[in-house]
Design goal:
This protein is an alpha/beta fold. It contains ten helices and eight strands. It has a six-stranded parallel sheet. The protein has a two-stranded parallel sheet with strand order 1-8.
Length: 254
């Protein structure tokens, strides 16, 4: 049987196209704490980090039950209500989240050569990002800073869809936005459940960045780095060009 030709590549973002720290504390959040104190909160810096981490972890636990996504506004509202002892204003919420995200972004780094890689792939495939994030503007802003936003046909975020990977809804939303079938797309990411099991269950062939070979994935679907992708796709394209002699006209979802 012959595989449908791959025309679209869907990318995870954090850990795949950029390096980052997922920590909510290690980047250093002194400016966020200073702003919090100006709003009237009496928390020490250490207590601020502990309370913020606890509130965020509570939202994470709720999301893990069914993959519903939450926003930075959701967690910020809950945190500030406790920290200030009263209902925060919308202006306070937005100002705190904006400062916190600015400091969190200091842990995001763009790998050398990634812009050239994306530009190369954009010349051969249609590209999209499908990412878990609590802030809708975060990933488009990074892509803009990298000079790559125009290389992507769509940026699908969990916070806008309402569901995070590996929920099937986020993959279906991406395919609908691109007007492409699952069999004509591949997914590339670095986390086994969200970025491999999720797309595979949705009928999208997945490649996992797994240099330590920890995940139980077929070797032909394992990458040592994102920069292995063009060669792997070229080899797959070569194999797809060879028809199955027993079923020359059939298609199979890879």
């Amino acid at each position: 049987m012959r595989q449908t030709r791959c025309t679209h590549i869907l990318f995870d973002f954090f850990g795949t196209l950029v390096e980052y720290s997922a920590s909510r504390t290690e980047q250093g959040f002194q400016r966020s704490h200073d702003l919090l104190r100006r709003m009237g909160a009496g928390l020490t810096y250490e207590k601020f980090l502990a309370e913020w981490s606890q509130t965020s972890a509570e939202f994470d636990r709720l999301s893990e039950r069914d993959d519903h996504e939450f926003s930075m506004i959701d967690v910020g509202t809950a945190f500030l209500a406790d920290a200030l002892g009263s209902e925060p204003t919308q202006a306070h919420i937005e100002a705190f989240i904006a400062e916190y995200v600015r400091e969190w972004n200091e842990g995001v780094h763009y790998p050398p050569g990634i812009a050239d890689l994306v530009s190369q792939l954009a010349g051969e495939y249609r590209l999209a990002v499908v990412t878990n994030t609590h802030q809708a503007t975060l990933v488009p802003n990074h892509l803009g800073a990298m000079g790559l936003l125009s290389s992507f046909d769509a940026v699908i975020t969990s916070v806008e869809v309402g569901w995070r990977k590996p929920h099937p809804k986020i993959f279906a939303t991406a395919l609908d936005a691109l007007e492409v079938t699952a069999s004509a797309a591949v997914f590339v990411g670095d986390t086994y459940g969200p970025d491999f099991q999720g797309p595979e269950n949705a009928g999208i062939r997945a490649f996992l960045i797994d240099p330590q070979q920890h995940a139980p994935v077929p070797e032909e679907q394992r990458l040592s780095s994102i920069f292995d992708l063009p060669g792997r796709l070229s080899r797959n394209a070569g194999s797809e060009a060879q028809p199955d002699r027993d079923s020359d006209d059939a298609e199979a979802i890879s």
